[in-house]
Specification:
By secondary structure, this protein is of the alpha/beta class. The chain has one domain: Uracil-DNA Glycosylase, subunit E, CATH 3.40.470. The protein has helices at residues 8-17, 22-34, 71-74, 82-93, 131-147, 159-169, 199-202, 209-234, and strands spanning 52-53, 59-63, 114-118, 153-157, 182-184, 190-194. The protein has a six-stranded mixed β-sheet, with helices on both faces. Strand 5 (182-184) and strand 6 (190-194) form a beta hairpin. Helix 4 (82-93) packs across helix 8 (209-234). The radius of gyration is 18 Å and the shape is globular. The N and C termini lie far apart (47 Å).
Length: 238
């Protein structure tokens, strides 16, 4: 008897059913019951939030974790919160999304050449997962990268996602984190860093829309170059 081959569908099902971290399980479910007043008529997702996007993605975007009243409410990563407004607007401008907004799982959003995920799949208290919770979740990201074989560039949003990816790749020394910082990962993929589009960064001007868009403009350049190289290798000589 052979094992069933891995797939994004299988991974999604396992993520959604995960109850590995008691603190996160308790918090996500409490938030889903207590709710925010402005969403009190809505049914919250209240479970781990899987990745979302194009299975043939060239770009992988890695965030921190679902927001308590964003992804934990809607069931889709970066959906229904202010950070998501920045993320999908930038993806749309760079040609990776069919619309600039993401408000609910059924809003018609589709990604082309991009996949969005998070280092931790459950909403954490105070947006602060523990290192143990991060490490418990990392195998899901490992599997996503293995399944998304075309990915040429990984964009990490914030220091936490950067550290998670470096830990996953066992990078020693770790490439420095900074907005717009770039490095080549051991498997040849390009790592691009961005400040997280949290209100703490966007409201204070630490992260501007222009600076955020520049990361995705660079990601598009890397993707286009990788596609050109692949096409040149596969094309027969004249």
């Amino acid at each position: 008897m052979t094992d069933t081959p891995d797939s994004l569908e299988r991974l999604t099902a396992e993520v959604v059913a995960c109850r590995a971290c008691p603190r996160l399980v308790a918090w996500r479910e409490l938030v889903a019951v207590e709710k925010r007043a402005s969403f009190r008529q809505e049914e919250y997702w209240g479970r781990p939030v899987p990745g979302f996007g194009d299975p043939r993605a060239d770009l992988l975007l890695v965030g921190l974790a679902p927001a308590a009243h964003g992804g934990n409410r809607t069931g889709r990563v970066f959906t229904g919160d202010r950070s998501g407004d920045w993320v999908f607007r930038a993806l749309w401008k760079a040609g990776f999304a069919n619309q600039p907004t993401s408000v609910s799982a059924g809003d018609g959003l589709a990604l082309t050449g991009a996949y969005v995920t998070a280092a931790v799949r459950c909403a954490p208290p105070a947006n602060r997962p523990t290192p143990t919770e991060r490490d418990t979740c990392l195998p899901y990201l490992v599997r996503e990268l293995a399944l998304l074989r075309r990915v040429a560039v990984v964009v990490v949003l914030g220091q936490f996602a950067h550290n998670a990816l470096c830990h996953m790749y066992r990078l020693r020394p770790r490439p420095p984190f900074g907005h717009g910082a770039e490095a080549v990962l051991p498997d040849g993929r390009t790592l691009l860093c961005s400040y997280h589009p949290s209100q703490q960064n966007t409201f204070t001007g630490t992260l501007t829309e222009e600076a955020f868009d520049a990361v995705f403009t660079r990601a598009r350049e890397v993707v286009d170059a990788a596609q050109d190289e692949s096409a040149a290798v596969s094309s027969p000589p004249p």
